[in-house]
Amino acid sequence: PSSAYRFGKQVSVAVAKAREQVAALIGADPKEVFFSSCGTESDNTALWTALQTTGKKHIVTTSVEHSAIIKQGAYLETQGCRVTWLGVDGKGRLDLKQLEDAIHDDTAIVSVMTANNETGVIFPIKEIAEISRRKGVLFHTDAVQTPGKIVLDVRKTGVDFLSLSGHKLHAPKGVGILYVKRRTKHLPFVIGGGQERGKRGGTENVASIVGLGQAAQLSLEHLKEEQGRVRGLRDKLEKGIVSSIANVTINGDTESRLPNTTNISFNGVESEALLLKLDQYNICVSAGSACTTGALEPSHVLTAMGLSADAAHSAIRFSLSRYNSDRDIEKTLEVLPTIVNQLRASAPVKSEVAA
Ligand code: PLP
Q1: Which of 71, 117, 164, 300 for a ligand 1 pocket mutation test, highest count of atoms within 8 Å of Cβ?
Q2: Bridge-partner residues for 318, per DSSP?
Q3: Atom 5 (ligand 1) nearest CA
Q4: How far apart, in whole angstroms, are the C-alpha atoms of residue 260 and residue 115?
Q5: Long-range CB contacts (within 8 A, 24+) of 290-293
Q6: Does the reported pTM lie above 0.85?
Q7: What is the Cα 167 distance to its own chain's centre?
Q8: Ligand 1: centre distance to CA 351 (Å)
Q9: Per residue in 11-35, pLDDT tens?
């Protein structure tokens, strides 16, 4: 797309269209949208550029962020930065007074996800943006889990940076965006050619960018369906599980939650074993966060919410989309009670599920 010859021009027109489609999804100006390789790169870039452009060395974030923020924050701590890791209550909610008190003169940026990837809990982004603005610090939100599920409007919420990733809205994997509010200072994290108006070096992943643009448009078109029909499916699944299986706990604030997600602890069941059993029926779920599957540590999100290691190890995340049907829910409710009973019978209950 950077080449002046005809093929380059055709491609740059396609990238420009994708930029407009993504901008429409989040209520931004296309000039505020920068393509990246993934949500992780966008998250890393937001923290890094805020430190560079402000010359400050303090970050305020939460202990329930995705590892793209947690591990970047932990790395920055080894490089002389200070990070305040805000805790959450038993339902996964933040204390905004605590957040406000954590902002100091040396704070470069506040970074709080729009919704949690394991529980679906939605954070009050508009209020946090307002606090950050009042305190004169930048605000980034990782909105990777949210497109097509809730309305995103960067103007109304007033964020300075926002990250998205292609695969969460059915676009190809390996593409993302960083929204940067106009007139916000912004340096390239990936340094190289002058692509993305000098803000992100490296030849653009054009096919995936075009796919992301189309997915963004479809996401907007299907938003109502996801908020209504998909929420109905999720609620039916949840109610069915609670009424047919004893000793289950729904994790997270059910009052403020993405419409497609439910995180449930099945007391006395090892979540990895449950995941594998369900997989045999073509029912694909996550144990903890999909991105950390394979790690033996209990979910850092559920642990931060105060769940015991056993309760966290027995948690499964179901996340639905517009590609799920009523039949999927019925099938899951048909097989799940038997699987849970079998697993409980083979592995005696070790402990209670934490509140
Ligand atoms: N942030 C959240 C909330 C996520 O769920 C994910 C991953 O799925 C990411 C960031 C990382 O995105 P990516 O896998 O595109 O790097």
Answers
A1: 117
A2: 262
A3: 117
A4: 12
A5: 290/317, 291/66, 291/67, 291/117, 292/67
A6: yes
A7: 11
A8: 32
A9: 999 999 999 999 999 999 999 999 9
